[in-house]
Amino acid sequence: MRRIYFDHNATTPVAPEVLAAALPFFCDDFGNASSIHSYGQRCRAAVERARTQVAALLGARPAEITFTSGGTESNNLAIFGIVENAEGPRHVITTTIEHSAVLNPCQALETRGVEVTYVPVNREGLVDPADIRRALRPHTLLITVMFANNELGTVQPLEEIGRIAAEADVFFHADCVQAAGKIPVDVERLGLDLASISGHKLYATKGVGALYVRSGTHLKPLLYGGKHERGRRPGTENVAGSVALGAAAELAMQKLGSESARLAALRDRLEAGILERVPLARVNGSREHRTPNTTNILIPHIEGEAMVIALDLKGLAFSTGAACSSGAVEPSHVLTAIGLPKEDARACLRLSLGRSNTVDDVDYALTIIPEAIDRLRQLSPTYNRKPVPADSKPVPAQ
Known about the structure:
Helices cover 38% and strands 13% of the residues. It is α/β, with parallel strands linked by helices. The chain folds into two domains: 4-10 and 257-378, Aspartate Aminotransferase, domain 1 (Alpha-Beta Complex), CATH 3.90.1150; 16-252, Type I PLP-dependent aspartate aminotransferase-like (Major domain) (Aspartate Aminotransferase, domain 2, 3-Layer(aba) Sandwich), CATH 3.40.640.10. Strand 5, helix 6 and strand 6 form a beta-alpha-beta unit. The two termini are 37 Å apart.
């Protein structure tokens, strides 16, 4: 059976070039990067080379890159590291559509007496920078806003928010996990003090990520041990993972322009085909400000989980939302935050394309998606089976 993977926002396969770069550090070059003998120093050189590659992807300096275990740790280190390094009244600003790796740390801070403001977004999933400005208080320490949303692909106006943060002398962090490798990320242009990325979202291995920390920014560490990663993250370095992330970052820079354009064309073809073939379907989120590989589509009168299962049996893998939230009883907080009723929030599919996808993949998906939806709707007690007029048009995005 033909298999098609449209869930690249959940994870990506390791690129062949990345695997080739990392493999020697699992076997031959197995040294501890903190050792002073030749085994260790070869690994140290590899880690520092990877640090330079990651820094280049973000427009940063190598000394500003701290390797971590992934996006979740990077977000936690940024948020707790800033807030718990301060004393007295403390206030954090974030948005209602952040990843759980940001929302949950913010909620944990609230239990410790830190005030948190959750700024809402509009129906396109965009935050208004003016709302960020209005949320500022004299004791605001940190603004944390994700660059690109994992479910909608919506890209936030970070440059404007960065100027607001700078004017207020407030630290500015962005979860860039879904942005890095898909759209340009320039920490200087965006005015970021901290930025998180994850290896497995850009064709590196799982279990590695990085946090950009602007020079002069002081963080309280999450863990205590050795003085690794300039005292920010103790523990023996993940040499193979760091090398993989560095190679993936360099590969992403080489492919960024051409691959983004190719994926946007594929995404638009897939999206238009679904809107044309599936009555009542409509796109969630902004269709102008989003990553090139992602579409999130509401299919009323069906259950999203049933769609995932039905289409997986036909060879198509995709998601209804964030992979880390699968199995949750409650609908996506992102979709309800943009105004969808709970029943509609449970009836959405997220299709996220990647490097291996082709026009043939899209066209095959367009033959099986409408058929599966039609079968599921026939089982729905709420679906109106009256024939749709031939001149009917898809409902546009709100």
